[in-house]
Structure formats: structure tokens, C-alpha cells
Amino acid sequence: MIRVYQTIVDREHGNCMQAAIASLFNKSLNEVPNFKEFGGDWWEEMMKFVREQGYEFDGTLYNYNQYRITNKRIGVQTAKGLRNRFQKLKNMKGVDGYFYASVYSPKYYNPDDNPPSTHAVIVDRDLNIVHDVNPNYVNIKSYPESNKLKYNGVLYVYMINPVSK
User: Fold this and answer.
1) Which of 10, 29, 67, 101 is the most buried (most CB within 10 A)?
2) Other CB atoms closer than 10 Å to residue 3's CB: what's the count?
3) Domain ranges of the chain
4) Of residues 161, 44, 39, 54, the one with CA closest to residue 100
């Protein structure tokens, strides 16, 4: 993984996703599309890029604690199932052991927003945030709601792994 930083910091049109994917795949920023420019098709374009790198999307691991913060009701069985999902990451290959993840945006977080703004980061298998793509957050100590969320404030992790042969 190389450290690529976002060049557009904007609540709705920033390029943190582009910088995180560039970092993950050891690419320069201009070698990766700015997925936000694809509007509603951003997900398909990102998955296309991931496949072109020889990887596949294996699902998303969500932090069950975010349901407490947003006051969403989920059943006890669902909560138990979500609670241990992050443990699956320890057995995933990722991209050289790293994964694309999301946290609440340190700059734009407002708990009254529905949904609150998020920000892309890179994590390791232990959910340590190893790279924040915003150059202003190089020395950040914690993310919004990280005390309640646990897991360093990580909301979810995209499981991107090498294509199985």
C-alpha cells in the first residue's frame, strides 16, 4: 500500500474514495477513476476497477454498534450475528492485508444528518486505521463516535480479496 491523498475535500463531491482505492492498489491518483463522477453508477465502476486489478468484492462487514447510535431497532439475533462479523477479517487476504473502510467524516459529521457523512480510510486486519487519505488527518487521534462504535470508529469494511482460482 502506498499513501495517496485526496485532492478534493468537499462534503458531497470529495475524492476520498478515489484516493483510498489508489492507495490500496499502489496506483497514483490519476490512474484511478474518481468514482463520484459516475453518479448513481459509482458502485459498478468501482467494482469494475477492482476486478481489473485481479480482485473481487466478497461483501461488506458492518459495525453493529452503529445501530445503537442511529437508534435503529434490530433483533437480538441480528445484533449477535453482526457483533462477530469483524472477526472474519482476520482470515481475509485483502489487498496485501489491507482493506477499504469507512468512518464518520471528521470534518462534516453531524449526528442529525440522515445519513451522516462518511469518509474513506484504509485498515488492516485488526481494524487499525493505517492510512487516512485526507492530508489534514495524518495525526488524527480518533474519529466521530469512535468511543461508542469501538473498532477505531470503523463503520464498515469492503472485503476485497484476490480472485479465487
Assistant:
1) 101
2) 14
3) 57-162
4) 161
pLDDT greater than 70 at residue 83: no
pLDDT tens-digit profile of 13-50?
889 999 999 999 999 999 999 998 998 899 999 999 99
Res 2: pLDDT: 95
CA distance 116 to 13: 15
Cα–Cα distance measured from residue 99 to residue 109, given in angstroms and rounded to the nearest whole number: 22
CA–CA distance, 2 with 95 (Å, rounded to integer): 12
CB 102 within 8 Å of CB 154: yes
Which of 70-74, 102-106, 153-157 is least confident?
70-74
In one-letter notation, the amino acid at residue 72 is K
Q: H helices of 5-105, where?
A: 16-24, 42-52, 66-70, 76-83
82 exposure class (CB count in 10 Å sphere: 0-12, 13-18, 19+): middle
pLDDT at 150: 86
Pick the closest to residue 83 from 102, 104, 67, 100 (CA basis). 67
